[in-house]
Specification:
Distance between the termini: 47 Å
Structural class: mainly beta
Number of strands: 8
Helix content: under 10%
Order of helices and strands: EEEEEEEEH
Largest sheet: 4 strands, antiparallel
Number of domains: 1
Strand order of the largest sheet: 1-7-3-4
Number of helices: 1
Radius of gyration: 17 Å
CATH topology: Jelly Rolls
């Protein structure tokens, strides 16, 4: 069975996530979860269903990002949990949760944008001029 759940996020400012994990509430029925972020100011062409943020599957224990990196979560974003459940032949409930940690005010020294959808030429040019990779 497939179900989509939505959750609003209450952030006072954009935050870089340092670690995240999806914890299934009932491991007997949760097969996997894909969590998407729906940003309030997403560029044209971004899927309305959101961009992949994190996932859970049996054997995956979460992500911890390197010291100088993080995953951006913008103020005003919503989360979409794409849930896939096993049928186990009995009435069951689930309360799957997403846990994350962030450091207030943290901004990585090196940032890059990855275009997951086609962008206008002027945006592509701006992104290339801002892209910085360590030697």
């Amino acid at each position: 069975m497939w179900i989509d759940y939505f959750a609003d996020i209450t952030l006072d400012e954009d935050r870089y996530i340092k670690a995240m994990e999806i914890k299934p509430g009932n491991r007997r029925i949760v097969h996997h979860v894909v969590m998407y972020v729906i940003e309030p100011d997403a560029p044209p062409g971004t899927p309305e269903t959101g961009i992949n943020l994190h996932e859970y599957a049996v054997g995956k224990y979460g992500d911890t990002f390197n010291e100088s990196t993080g995953r951006l979560l913008k103020k005003g974003s919503r989360l979409r949990f794409d849930m896939h459940y096993f049928a186990n032949g009995e009435e069951s409930t689930d309360k799957t949760e997403m846990h994350s940690s962030s450091t207030e005010g943290f901004r990585p020294e090196i940032r890059s944008e990855v275009d997951l959808v086609p962008q206008p030429a002027e945006r592509r040019a701006r992104n290339r001029s801002q892209l910085c990779h360590p030697p």
